[in-house]
């Protein structure tokens, strides 16, 4: 899937932060302790990761030809899925 390729394309630090905070639900504090960095670095890295993943998915969706209504629905869902995964995490990290 495109989302997985986008995550794998992140720089290592951003990828670790994304996996720990978004996918594994570690707190910013715990993530900063595990990675030996400041909490603000974790927050900034997650923001960069989410931005890069969102940009990659959006670019991919724009390049896909829409050949039938099912494809259009799927394209809309891929962005929505990403938003569903990350929106709760963004709300709690502020």
Comma- or semicolon-separated keywords:
94 residues, mainly alpha, 5 helices, elongated
What secondary-structure arrangement, pairings included, does this model have?
Layout: H1 2-8, H2 12-23, H3 28-35, H4 39-63, H5 69-93
If you had to describe this structure to a student in words, what would you say it looks like?
With 94 residues, the protein is mostly helical. 82% of the residues lie in helices and 0% in strands. The two termini are 29 Å apart. About 6% of the residues have low confidence.
> How far is the first residue's CA from the last residue's CA?
29 Å
H/E order of the elements?
HHHHH
Largest sheet, in brief, is: none
Low-confidence stretches: 73-78
Globally, the shape reads elongated
Helix segment count?
5
Rounded Rg: 15 Å
Count the strands? 0
How large a portion of the residues is in β-strands, by DSSP E? under 5%
**Sheet/helix structural class:** mainly alpha
What is the mean pLDDT?
80
**Assembly annotation:** single chain
Helix content class: over 70%
């Amino acid at each position: 899937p495109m989302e997985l390729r986008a995550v794998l394309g992140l720089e290592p630090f951003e990828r670790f932060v994304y996996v720990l905070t978004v996918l594994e639900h570690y707190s910013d504090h715990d993530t900063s302790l595990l990675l030996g960095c400041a909490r603000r670095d974790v927050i900034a890295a997650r923001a960069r990761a989410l931005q890069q993943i969102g940009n990659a998915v959006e670019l991919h969706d724009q390049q896909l030809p829409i050949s039938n209504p099912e494809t259009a629905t799927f394209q809309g869902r891929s962005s929505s899925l990403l938003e569903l995964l990350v929106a709760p995490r963004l709300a709690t990290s502020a």
